[in-house]
Design a protein that fits this description.
alpha/beta, Rossmann fold, 2 domains, four-stranded antiparallel sheet, 10 helices, 34% helix, binds adenosine-5'-triphosphate, binds magnesium ion
C-alpha cells in the first residue's frame, strides 16, 4: 500500500520517544445504573497492534469512545504518547494524531468517494466540507486522497457516490478517511461488523497491510479477526478486564473459551 502519506510514529505530535502510544489507566464509565466500563487499564507500545474483544455489551465501544474523545470517562485517565488527553475533545485528539474510523453515518453519502476522502483530509467536519467546496480543489489534498484510495483498493470506485458502495467498500473508505489524516495511532471500532465473509477477508488483508510502524487498537467482537491481526489482545466482559495476553494465550483462556464457545450470547 501507499505509506508515504502516513506520519512516522510517534510522529510530529509525539512528546516522548519511549512513552507508550496509548496508556489507559483505571478507566471507568457509568451510565445511570450501568457500569459500562469498569477499571480498564491498557498500554499500547509504539508500533504495536492490540485487539480488544468481548461479547455484546462488554463495554468495547464505550472504551473506544472514551479513547477517541466522544465520551468523557467517569474516572481514570488516557495518555497519548506521554500526554494526558483525558480532558481534550475529539478534534484536539485528532490534531494530536488520533486516527479513527468514521461511523458510516458520518460519511457524506451524496458525495463521491474521492470527495469524502478530500473532506477527511481537511479535518472531516461539515465545516471543512463547506470550506472545501467554497475554496475549490487543492492539489496536494487531492493527490493524497487519490493515494489513500489506491492504498485501500478503492480506485475504481473513486467517482461513485458513497450511497452506491457495499458495506465492505464503505469500511475501506472509512479506513482511507482515517489514514489521510496522517495519524500517529489508529483506532478501529468493530470494522468487520455486518460484513460478509468475503468482505471480512478483504478488510483483514487491508488492516494487515497497514504500516507496521502505526500503532493500532482494534476493537472487535469477531475473535478470529482480532486474534489474527494483533500482537496482543485484551478480553473484557461486563465492563471489566478478563485477560490480556498474546492471541494464543487469550484464545486458550478458560473464561474466553466460555464466553466465545460456551452457551453465552454470540453476535
Ligand atoms: N449512551 C449510553 N447510554 C446508556 N447506556 C449505554 C450507553 N452506551 C452504552 N451503554 C451500555 O453500556 C454497556 C456497554 O455497551 P457497549 O456498547 O460499550 O458494549 P460493546 O462491547 O461495544 O457491545 P457490542 O458488541 O454489542 O457492540 C451496555 O450495557 C450498554 O447498554
Ligand atoms: Mg460495540
Amino acid at each position: 500500500m501507499t505509506t508515504s502519506a502516513i506520519a512516522g510514529v510517534p510522529g510530529p505530535h509525539g512528546s516522548g520517544a519511549s512513552a507508550p502510544a496509548l496508556a489507559v489507566t483505571e478507566l471507568g464509565k457509568r451510565y445511570g445504573g450501568v457500569q459500562a466500563v469498569d477499571g480498564i487499564s491498557l498500554s499500547l507500545a509504539p508500533g504495536e497492534r492490540m485487539g480488544v474483544i468481548g461479547p455484546n455489551g462488554a463495554g468495547k465501544t464505550t472504551l473506544f469512545k472514551m479513547i477517541a474523545g466522544d465520551v468523557s470517562p467517569t474516572v481514570g485517565t488516557i495518555d497519548l504518547f506521554g500526554r494526558d488527553v483525558t480532558k481534550l475533545d475529539t478534534a484536539r485528539r485528532a490534531r494530536l494524531g488520533v486516527g479513527r474510523t468514521f461511523q458510516v453515518s458520518n460519511l457524506f453519502r451524496d458525495m463521491t468517494v474521492l470527495d469524502n476522502v478530500r473532506v477527511a483530509a481537511r479535518g472531516g467536519s461539515s465545516q471543512a466540507r463547506i470550506f472545501w467546496r467554497t475554496q475549490g480543489l487543492r492539489d496536494e489534498v487531492t493527490t493524497r486522497a487519490i493515494e489513500m484510495l489506491d492504498s485501500v483498493d478503492l480506485t475504481s470506485r473513486r467517482d461513485d457516490t458513497v450511497a452506491d458502495l457495499s458495506h465492505g467498500e464503505q469500511r475501506q473508505l472509512e479506513i482511507a478517511m482515517a489514514l489521510v489524516t496522517e495519524p500517529s495511532i489508529l483506532l478501529l471500532d468493530e470494522p468487520a461488523a455486518g460484513l460478509s465473509a468475503a468482505e471480512r477477508t478483504t478488510l483483514r488483508d487491508l488492516i494487515e497491510s497497514l504500516p507496521r510502524t502505526l500503532p493500532v487498537l482494534l476493537i472487535e467482537h469477531d475473535m478470529s479477526l482480532a486474534l489474527g491481526l494483533t500482537d496482543r489482545v485484551m478480553c473484557m466482559e461486563n465492563g471489566r478486564h478478563v485477560v490480556t495476553g498474546t492471541p494464543d494465550e487469550v484464545r486458550d483462556h478458560p473464561t474466553v473459551k466460555e464466553i466465545y464457545l460456551g452457551r453465552r450470547d454470540k453476535k
